[in-house]
Amino acid sequence: MSVHGVKIGLEIHCQLTSLKTKLFCGCSSDYRGKNPNMVACPVCLGIPGALPVLNEKAVDCAVMAALALNCKVSERMFFFRKNYFYPDMPKNFQISQYDRAGGVPLAVDGYLYIQAGGKQKEIRISRVHLEEDPGKLVHLGAIDESPYTLVDYNRSGIALLEIVTEPDLNSPREARIFLQKLRSILEHLGVFDGSLEGAMRCDANISLAGGTRVEIKNISSFKEVERALSFEIMRQRDMLKKGLGVKRETRHWDETRRITITLRTKEEEQDYRYFPEPDLVPIVITEDFIKEIEAKMPELPEARIKRFVEAYGLPSYDAGVLVGSKALADFFEECVKLHNKPKEISNWMMSDLLRYLYENNLEIHESKITPKHLVEMIKLIEDGVISGKIGKRILPEMVLTGRHPSQIVKEKELIKIDSREKLEEIVKKVFAENPKAVEDALADEKAAHFLVGQLMKETKGKADPQLANQIIREKLEHIKTKKVPK
Amino acid sequence: MPKLCERTANEVAKKIRDKETTTEECVLSIFERVHKVESKVHAFVTLVEEEALEKAREIDNKVSNGKPLGKLAGIAIAIKDNMCTNGIRTTCSSRMLEKFVPPYDATVIEKIKREDGIIIGKTNMDEFAMGSTTETSHFGPTHNPWDLSAVPGGSSGGSAAAVAADETFLALGSDTGGSIRCPASYCSMVGLKPTYGLVSRYGLIAYANSLEQIGPIAKSVYDCALLLSVIAGYDPRDATSVKVRSKDYTFFLKDDVKDVKVGVPKEFFGEGTSENIGKSVWDAIYKLEELGASYSEVSLPSLEYALSAYYLVAMSEASSNLARYDGLRYGYRIKSDDADWSTVYSKDRRAGFGDEVRRRIILGTYALSAGYYNKYYLKALKIRTLIRRDFEKAFKNFDVLIGPTMPTPPFKIGEKIQDPLALYMCDVLTVPANLAGLPAISIPCGFADALPIGMQITAPPFREDLILKVGYAFERNTTYKDQKPPLK
């Protein structure tokens, strides 16, 4: 959707999923799928008397991320308390960072380039900071209809990286592109795994020309970002058209109904009463420390794209698509390691695998196909065991079931028919059943395609296409010579 | 012959080691005393007699089997009720936590247990340590053993009164703005607030995190040094605890103040300080001079703003610390089925907190609000820096600073409770040490109309050894320590 005068700023919360423990206590960060409130201790439950102690590895990860986002890392930073009452926060304050009232966040003033509409565009990043994740409220159905709220504190205290952009994005699509790029960078740094449910969440500020800034909370994925923002643009445009104006407020994205609803108006905005967290000491970040982190920095997406182009000879568009997701790029390289035919592999991934995933709203990690299986399939084609067409046909099953390609081929009897004898018999049958088409083909060579198609249909695509073609042409030639007497 | 319970911790520990008595006898003697006087003093919120006796027998077994004994072997210790004790309810003397049983031990409790100390109960205090008289306790006031109609000081009033009444040998208190030194002074006990960061706060239920420390209350300077040696030291669970090597503070106790330079801050003897208190403290300074110390007056001009800065910082931090008491996970909860969460929170907090706690939460919330933060909180932090600098300057010329602990003698229960500002004024001489994070001790130094007077000795950071040494020398050459309250 492209509407004039749209300004979007994002506030992204990424869990530093590579950490083994929570941000301020020794609890395991592996809370997913655990029984409610079982991954918790006095610290992350806010039991009286318990004190937070900073997980120093979180600082390493956060500094690395900040550097990758071209930010200035602060020499000395503090934690602040953000005070407000809400049942998902056991202490009724969140240990976070702040950029005012004497506060210094971990890093400021960064930027990221995205490709939008064929052009490179700079998206400024105003700050990056560390904070603790609150617990999770569980509702029955929609938030405003649930008869009760359950609280699960397993997530409470997980390390979150908050990344805030300037309002430099001008469409929902750009927002999505930005988030994908961000995700790929964080994944390449090894600090974040976007395939985990709820690991990246997003709030968005959005305004239209002549309107007011509205904040949307509770957006849980890239797809939802685009949807929520598109809905909000429509809503705001309608309001403006009707001359009703847009209220400054915070809205909640309801994923199920795909609408935004008012959470609180400007009058109800919280005064968070930020002040320095007295239980934690300032963190000093030296130049040496930054150098150390820089030295540890793994290959970033841009360098990887370049390498894909140079080392594997991929078109830069293809390289960009593959590296757009670390999992995809890893998948590709894993394949290449097994079978050194990068272009072949890239083609299969770009045209068939990705299209199937996209059409079915899947991500590579949700698919069951392994690099080994994709390579096996390509080899089956190269060895002439199956046709390329069959390859295309069995790919969805490989994605859905994770079964070995030769197993599928065997079970469904999809092995290529390349016996001349057998094919000649089938051609005979096809000719007999389609006399009109044979007439046409005799008159115009190009019309022979129909007969090839019929043959493929008859063999369920198993016929060796080259051989089939050859037999059909021979047979047509044969008829021709018969018809014209010498 | 004095009864066992009337002895100091050091004397009792020696008797147990020398097998002149058993731990069980000591603990029995303590509880006999508790049962006799507790109805008058009301020093305790919770007593754990059975557990204490069981632990006593365990230690007696160790003694008879010749096993190594901890530093506190056999010594009864009372714990202020704001330190978490695993399995023993910890109330902060608040209705809000009336039924709260912590699932873990505070670091200081772990350390005491490791050294074979015997926890006998949890002592009364001002609700959430907010007060200077122990009158704001949800469970009713504690009475001063020297005069049952007088306040024992606070907020660690139960701890000081329990030691003074021979209901325990040692006690732990916590000091945010004088809460150890004030009751120590009012009950004629020795009470020490350590340097900020010396003792772990892990498990101390926070009132104002940046100001408070846990510290000992004892009958003698030696006992005080003994308990400090056990609880001091770096704790990885408290980010503000400092990496200093642990010491045996009893080692520094020498009857020698030769060449000790004493500074006497003029501001400690201002208008608000009673004449008889000023006189007793000056007499104590003359005594130290007699023993070889030198003194001269000094001025710390920023102290004028200490009280205001203290209350702003303390209340601001408190307003945030106490936010967690919403009745959802623990604490006081009113049955209100149909209400939304914010209504439930409001109801629970209104009913669960007492007046003084609510007052401080509201004032602290106000001080941190948008538009006031710079005017109040940040300004208080600046004053804090000025006070720290004034002390640093003074300690360039002096080893210790000496003045009164409290500006007035203990007053009657109920006398000031309706006048919060008058009560806040009580802390005027104790809060500077908290704002600057310095170690300070209160030592008995006289009586005014049979009510105790304490002198306060302050030293540079981590010089607990110095204040203990000066206190020890003074104690050795005076008799205040040997006087017992008239409590029968």
Structural write-up:
The complex is a heterodimer of chains A (about 475) and B (about 500). Helices cover about 40% and strands about 20% of the residues of chain A. Chain A is of the alpha+beta class and about 475 residues long. In chain A, a hairpin with a 4-residue loop joins strand 13 and strand 14. The longest helix of chain A is centred in the middle third of the chain and has 20 residues, at about 220-240. Chain A starts with 6 loop residues before the first strand and ends with a helix. Chain B is of the alpha/beta class and about 500 residues long. The chains are: A alpha+beta (about 475), B alpha/beta (about 500).
Overview features:
heterodimer, A: 486 residues, alpha+beta, Arc Repressor Mutant, subunit A, 3 domains, 9-stranded mixed beta sheet, 3-stranded antiparallel beta sheet, B: 488 residues, alpha/beta, Amidase signature (AS) enzymes, 11-stranded mixed beta sheet, 15 helices, 38% helix, globular
